[in-house]
Structure formats: structure tokens, C-alpha cells
User: Which sequence fits this backbone?
């Protein structure tokens, strides 16, 4: 019997063939934490007698949630990380001005790569599955365990195969695909499982698109969302000075279930409050005439250059509706520079968007765009839970950068293909 | 380990943003976090005296969303002694095991009401609803997880393996 990609990757790390359901104690390649989760990891590391971390080169710390620091408490948290990084000789610590949202930054800088085993005290660590790595979200205690010993525990998951064919049409995005998948599986349809992607459509699915897809698999409960390492990945890694070979699941691997999607049939999606699985096609969402107050374009889901390009394409020569605040947040310093170079920043500013330095900010209701009672937002982020972006009585509709930009212009949830 | 307490009832898909809203995450002080436990689902819950020793009973997919360990920490330090739900989101489940907060999967949580007195015996795998005189059996944890629990959490377990050099 052949192996799934998760099984193959974990077998590589374990040095023997592993089976779904097995518990493993493994050496990890990268341990990530941020300004919310690292303080607990550091405290536990010290509580358990930690003096020197097991391997500073495997540790990445990115303050991104409440930076540039929004208040004294969050500044104190980052201070803890900064001092820890200095005292432990952790070079992969990223300050404001050199940073990005962790899941945009790590692949971009080549800090995670194909075949790596990555654990991160952030649920969207699954983003790097796009590279063909085994990357999963864990808690702060797990990270403390890596600081102390270099190791983490993992259960080998069963896998769901998602086979994709066809091609995304104009103004239909990878975000629409993953929202569709989540609506089919439900918010815990992939709980404890791996999602693995395959099929002819991958040829036309960019790396930025794959990051978006892998990023949101956790919204269906999945542990990882793994893409094969194909020519596109090899190329992407090469640009970062990393040499990798292609990698796929075995033809006869056993999957718990197989889902198929034809991208030709896919319409832009909108996820209604308060679950990411609560989606409608844009055509019927438009009929609901939903008036909006705010638009967020950014986050670890949709803060990459392709996302900004498609938003700018729609915003060019148009203006944000007078009653709407449209906030654009490039996912990293590099994305911001690239957007500037391509003239996208001019487009955003000319159309009356506010543009921010990279931060998670409004995505988790932190700062830079918190919603008031009763307000409605269209957001390219990944969660629309009660109170996620501010007041418990505010509402978030999740969508692609194309739908978000079109909605910003209309002031109502709008179809980017008919604007 | 035996736990006895009063039931506090919650629904399906209670996510970590509800268990501890992000606006309180600019601290990691457990007692501070505990005050805002469940703030957006039941305002004031974390500051109630009568939840000490209580048991949270909920539906499907409890603890979905963010990986923040602040969520189980807030529950633990609010004095809640155990969470019983139909199912748990993966990272939340993991975090509870890692920090030693007892959690139990039980499909029949619909049969419980707010205020029921419940007794849970983790060793024998029995849950008794004393108010309703009903008894349920629960699946034991796999050996690996049982080992972690017996050592009070993941770091205690790692220490027992002598993986720690310090
Ligand atoms: S952008 Fe949002 S989802 Fe992504 S890491 Fe930041 S807070 Fe989490």
C-alpha cells in the first residue's frame, strides 16, 4: 500500500515507515511563535529550568499581532521576546521595519522550505503546506518543549484528498476555492486530518494561491494542507537559493475520502457570519444587498503581492464608496516594496484606501480597524467568528481580494466580474 | 482522578475567540486571562465565584480557531475543573493535554442541563449525572496521551524521558 504525502513526510522525519494513528516524538526543523504565544513559551521554558535553548537556529519569533505596538501591555510582551532572542542568540527575530505577518514572511525569506517539519504556536502555521512541508499549529507549551529539547509530539493523521481540475476564471481566486472546500467539509469536517491537494489544476495555481489555500485548511479543522512539490515549487524555492526535488503522494495511497472540484465551475464566494463554512455564491450574496462599513485587504491569507494586484486592478480609476473605510495591509515589508514598485500603492491611495505597515492588526480585532457595534466588514482574512474583529455585535463577511475591492467601491457586497 | 461539579452549558463551535477574546491577549497572566473567560458568550462568566470546581459541557468542535493556549489557561485558572464536549478542535485538545486540563469527549452532552451535578472518574472512564441518575462510559485516552497527563502535562513528560539537558 502506497503512502499519502503526510505519511511520507513524517516517515522521512521518523526514519521509518509510519502509519496513521501513531504517536511520534520528532525533531522539528522550525519552531515558530509570535508576540501572543511566545511569552507563554518563554515563561514555561524558564519554569522548567531552561537556560540555553536546544538550538537557536531552529527558532523563529515574529511579533506581528499587536505591532507596531498598540499599547503598553503589548509593548511589554514584545520586550520579553526581544530580550529572549538577544540572550539566546536567536537571529530569526523580526522587528518592525523588517517584518511581515509570520505566514507571509517565513516562506518569502526561505525560513521554511519543502520537506521541513514545522510547528508553530499559531493555528495558521499550516500555510507552509503549500511548499510540500509538514507544518502544523500547536500551542505555546509545545514550543517550550522545542526550546528545551528540539522535539515535539505528533500523531500521524489520516488524509483527505482534494483533486482539482480546470482553471480559475477571471476575478475568481484561490480564496474562493478554499472557502468552497470549507463549506463542503464544514468547520470540523477535517478535524485531526490532513488535507492533500492534487490534480491537473495545480499547474495553473500560483504559489501565492497555494499559500491562501493551505492557510485556511485549519478552518475545516485540518492539521495540515499539503501540496505536492512540483515544477512551480521547485522554481519558487530556487529563487530563494533552496534546491529541492519534486515530490508527490503514491498513486495507490489510501485516503479517508476524496473530494473533486472543477475550477471552471467556481464562482466567487462570500462566507457569512459567524462561520467560514457559511458561504454563498457571489450572485446570491449580491441579491442580499448588504451595505458595508469597512473593507480589509490583507492578512496571512490574502496579504501577498498577487492579492494586492487583483485588488488594485479593480480599484484603479475608481473610488471607495464615501461611507466605506478600505484598509489595505501588505503582508510584509517585501510585499509593500513590490507593490510600491508596481504602482499599486498609488492606485490604493488615489482610490482613497488607507494603507498600513504590515501587521495582523484588524484580523483579530487587535488594532488598525476594530469594528464598532453593528458595523459590517468585508474582509480577506480567515475568520468571521463573533467578535473576531471587534464588537461582539459586528459582522464579518469573508471574501477574496477581488470581492473585497469591488465591495469597497460599491459600498455593498459586490461581484468583481460585474463592476 | 475524580471530579465532581456543577454543569455550565455551552453550544456548538465555541471558538477560542469566544473563550478568550483577542482584546485581552496583550497579557499572558493566567489570573488576568481567567477573568475574561467566555466573555463574549456569557459576559462576566470568568468573574463568577460559583464556577469554581464547575464543569463546562458543550457541543461539537469546542475550542476551534486560534492556537492560543490562553484559551485552556483561562478556563483552567477560572476554576473550571473539566470540559466535556461532543468533539474538540485539534489544537485546543492538544493544548489541554499539554497543560493538564482534563477534557472528555462524550456524544450525549445534549442530555445535560445547566446546574446538573456531575461526577467524572477519568481512571474508570465513567461519567455520572447525579441530578438525572444517568451514567455514561467514555473512551480512555491513548497510552501516549495518558502518559502526558500522568506527568501533569507535556513538559513534565519530557522531563521524565530525560530529554531535557538542564
Ligand atoms: S493575519 Fe490573522 S490569522 Fe493570520 S496570523 Fe495574523 S491574526 Fe492570525
Assistant:
Amino acid at each position: 500500500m502506497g503512502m499519502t504525502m503526510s505519511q511520507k513526510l513524517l516517515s522521512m522525519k521518523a526514519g521509518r515507515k509510519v502509519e496513521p494513528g501513531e504517536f511520534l516524538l520528532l525533531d522539528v526543523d522550525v519552531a515558530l511563535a509570535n508576540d501572543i504565544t511566545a511569552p507563554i513559551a518563554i515563561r514555561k521554558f524558564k519554569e522548567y529550568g531552561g537556560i540555553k535553548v536546544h538550538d537557536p537556529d531552529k527558532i523563529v519569533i515574529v511579533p506581528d499581532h499587536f505591532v507596531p505596538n498598540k499599547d503598553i501591555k503589548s509593548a511589554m510582551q514584545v520586550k520579553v521576546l526581544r530580550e529572549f532572542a538577544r540572550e539566546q542568540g536567536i537571529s530569526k527575530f523580526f522587528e518592525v521595519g523588517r517584518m511581515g505577518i509570520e505566514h507571509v514572511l517565513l516562506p518569502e525569506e526561505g525560513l521554511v522550505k519543502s520537506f521541513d517539519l514545522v510547528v508553530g504556536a499559531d493555528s495558521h502555521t499550516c500555510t507552509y503546506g503549500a511548499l510540500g512541508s509538514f507544518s502544523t499549529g500547536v500551542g505555546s507549551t509545545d514550543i517550550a518543549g522545542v526550546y528545551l529539547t528540539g522535539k515535539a509530539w505528533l500523531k500521524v493523521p489520516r488524509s483527505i484528498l482534494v483533486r482539482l481540475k480546470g482553471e480559475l476564471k477571471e476575478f475568481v481566486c484561490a480564496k474562493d476555492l478554499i472557502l468552497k472546500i470549507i463549506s463542503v467539509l464544514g468547520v470540523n469536517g477535517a478535524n485531526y486530518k490532513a488535507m492533500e491537494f492534487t490534480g491537473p489544476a495545480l499547474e495553473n495555481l500560483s504559489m501565492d494561491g497555494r499559500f491562501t489555500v493551505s492557510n485556511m485548511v485549519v478552518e475545516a479543522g485540518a492539521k495540515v494542507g499539503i501540496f505536492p512539490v512540483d515544477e512551480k515549487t521547485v522554481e519558487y524555492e530556487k529563487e530563494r537559493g533552496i534546491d529541492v526535488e519534486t515530490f508527490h503522494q503514491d498513486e495507490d495511497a489510501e485516503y479517508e475520502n476524496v473530494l473533486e472540484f472543477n475550477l471552471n465551475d467556481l464562482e466567487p464566494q462570500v462566507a457569512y457570519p459567524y462561520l467560514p463554512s457559511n458561504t454563498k455564491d457571489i450572485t446570491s450574496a449580491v441579491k442580499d444587498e448588504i451595505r458595508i462599513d469597512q473593507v480589509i485587504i490583507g492578512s496571512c491569507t490574502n496579504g501577498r503581492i498577487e492579492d494586492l494586484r487583483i485588488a488594485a486592478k479593480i480599484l484603479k480609476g475608481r473610488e471607495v464608496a464615501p461611507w466605506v473605510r478600505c484598509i489595505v495591509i501588505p503582508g510584509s515589508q517585501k510585499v509593500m516594496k513590490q507593490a510600491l514598485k508596481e504602482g499599486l500603492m498609488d492606485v490604493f491611495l488615489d482610490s482613497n484606501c488607507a494603507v498600513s505597515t504590515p501587521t495582523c492588526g484588524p484580523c483579530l480585532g487587535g488594532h488598525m480597524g476594530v469594528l464598532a457595534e453593528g458595523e459590517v466588514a468585508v474582509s480577506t482574512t480567515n475568520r468571521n467568528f463573533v467578535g473576531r474583529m471587534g464588537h461582539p455585535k459586528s459582522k464579518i463577511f469573508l471574501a477574496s481580494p477581488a470581492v473585497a475591492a469591488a465591495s469597497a467601491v460599491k459600498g455593498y457586497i459586490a461581484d468583481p466580474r460585474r463592476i | 482522578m475524580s471530579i465532581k461539579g456543577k454543569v455550565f452549558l455551552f453550544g456548538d463551535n465555541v471558538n477560542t475567540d469566544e473563550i478568550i477574546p483577542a482584546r485581552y491577549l496583550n497579557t499572558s497572566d493566567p489570573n488576568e486571562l481567567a477573568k475574561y473567560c467566555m466573555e463574549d458568550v456569557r459576559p462576566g462568566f470568568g468573574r463568577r465565584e460559583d464556577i469554581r470546581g464547575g464543569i463546562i459541557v458543550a457541543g461539537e468542535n469546542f475550542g476551534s480557531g486560534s492556537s492560543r493556549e490562553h484559551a485552556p489557561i483561562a478556563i483552567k485558572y477560572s476554576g473550571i475543573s473539566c470540559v466535556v464536549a461532543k468533539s474538540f478542535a485539534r489544537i485546543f485538545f492538544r493544548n489541554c493535554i499539554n497543560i493538564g486540563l482534563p477534557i472528555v469527549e462524550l456524544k450525549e452532552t445534549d442530555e445535560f442541563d445547566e446546574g446538573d451535578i456531575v461526577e467524572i472518574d477519568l481512571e474508570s472512564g465513567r461519567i455520572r449525572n447525579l441530578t438525572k441518575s444517568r451514567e455514561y462510559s467514555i473512551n480512555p485516552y491513548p497510552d501516549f496521551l495518558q502518559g502526558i497527563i500522568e506527568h501533569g502535562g507535556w513538559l513534565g513528560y519530557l522531563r521524565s524521558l530525560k530529554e531535557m539537558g538542564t
User: Anything to note?
Assistant: The domain at 25-153 of chain A is CATH 3.30.499.10 (Aconitase; domain 3). Chain A has a mean pLDDT of 97. The radius of gyration of chain A is 20 Å. Chain A touches chain B through 54 residues (CB under 8 Å).
